[in-house]
Write a structure and sequence with these properties.
The protein is 34% helix and 18% strand. It is α/β, with parallel strands linked by helices and 357 residues long. The protein has two domains: 231 residues, NAD(P)-binding Rossmann-like Domain (Rossmann fold, 3-Layer(aba) Sandwich), CATH 3.40.50; 88 residues, Oxidized Rhodanese, domain 1 (3-Layer(aba) Sandwich). Helix 4 packs across helix 10. The N and C termini lie far apart (48 Å).
């Protein structure tokens, strides 16, 4: 696929590189890359792949843009609030580079659509923020035989690797089983420094470009770990194991959310809508940080942040039903599990989905 005169000038700094040159830039133009998630990681990946001239870029994300995203999701602005991330990403990337094709999927990635979508691309980039989607993406890549560029962030630490590349290790070789439910909360639960996804996302984009061009040493079999507080990188080796590999029929039926979140099983739960219909004297334990919004309007709310929950045990009644709530319903489950196992509570009810439903 030949470059136009305009493209040659646009990518002239690439063409000057012996490792890229005209042939390499044409490889980039022919490449098809799918980015799963247009969040903190996906935004810098998308921006740099578009700028580099990757000819076809797919982006799948079912979420809409919230003001809390703007601290790190650099594709978006205040004017984009409430709009589809996938659709806005397509508009912004097309505006940045009119010589590429951007395909947006404003939908959730599932067992049912993953294989069909992945079949249209050469490389898959993981920009997700939860374990059940990461396992789903890994397994779909194995079935579709696509290399997977992986990134993850947590507070001040980030990970990058490449899986399923030239028969190398997979995500399941690194994480054979998911962590205990709630043990590693998402960014929306514990926060993340805004520049970290930019650093990790650009590393992911770099791996994509190396794979397309066939240059350098791809991060297959290695996990790159970055610590933003120390400004340090380290690597650990990932050995290939006899990890679980699904057949297509098994993959289509597998319950990934249950697989990753099933370790905390609560017998009692209600929704926020049901909670607000109860009498005003119900006792609620809010395990969020005190600054988190929206606040719960009730006279009987005990603010007991999850990391300090042990210090509030004596303030939680044992002689009546107590409703435990957080922002999304993850920390409340962890709190209930702790209070039931360590403090013998039997009267706790989880508010499923938390304050944001």
């Amino acid at each position: 696929m030949k470059l136009t005169a305009e493209e040659k000038y646009r990518y002239s700094r690439h063409l000057l590189l012996e490792e890229v040159g005209l042939e390499g830039q044409e490889k980039l133009k022919m490449a098809k890359v799918l980015v799963v998630g247009a969040g903190g990681l996906g935004c810098p990946v998308l921006l740099y792949l578009a700028a580099a001239g990757v000819g076809t870029i797919g982006v799948i994300d079912f979420d809409t843009i919230d003001v809390s995203n703007l601290q790190r999701q650099i594709l978006f602005s205040t004017d984009d609030l409430g709009r589809s991330k996938a659709k806005v990403a397509k508009e912004k990337l097309n505006a940045n580079n009119p010589f590429i094709e951007v395909i947006s999927y404003n939908e959730q990635l599932t067992n049912e659509n993953a294989l069909d979508i992945f079949s249209k691309f050469d490389i898959i980039v993981d920009g997700t923020d939860n374990f059940h989607t990461r396992y789903l993406v890994n397994d779909a890549c194995l079935i579709a035989n696509k290399p997977l560029v992986y990134g993850a962030i947590h507070k001040f630490e980030g990970h990058v690797s490449v899986f399923n590349y030239q028969e190398g290790p997979t995500y399941r070789c690194l994480f054979p089983t998911p962590p205990e439910a709630g043990s590693i909360p998402s960014c929306s639960e514990v926060g993340v420094v805004g520049v970290l996804p930019g650093i990790i996302g650009t590393q992911e984009a770099n791996e994509v470009i190396k794979i397309i061009l066939g240059i350098g040493k791809v991060l297959s079999g290695r996990l790159l770990i970055y610590n933003a507080l120390q400004s340090s990188f380290m690597e650990i080796q990932i050995n290939k194991t006899e990890a679980m590999i699904f057949k297509k029929e098994e993959f289509l039926k597998f319950d990934y959310q249950g697989y990753c979140e099933g370790s905390i099983v609560l017998e009692k739960s209600i929704t926020l809508e049901e909670l607000v219909k109860l009498s005003s004297d119900v006792f609620v334990v809010d395990v969020r940080e005190v600054w988190e919004q929206p606040q719960l309007e009730s006279k009987h709310v005990l603010h007991a942040p999850l990391h300090e929950i042990a210090g509030y045990v004596n303030e939680i009644p044992t002689d009546k039903e107590v409703y435990v709530i957080c922002q999304h319903g993850v920390r409340s489950k962890v709190a209930i599990e702790y209070l039931e196992k360590e403090c013998n509570f039997t009267n706790l009810i989880n508010v499923e989905g938390g304050m944001l439903g």
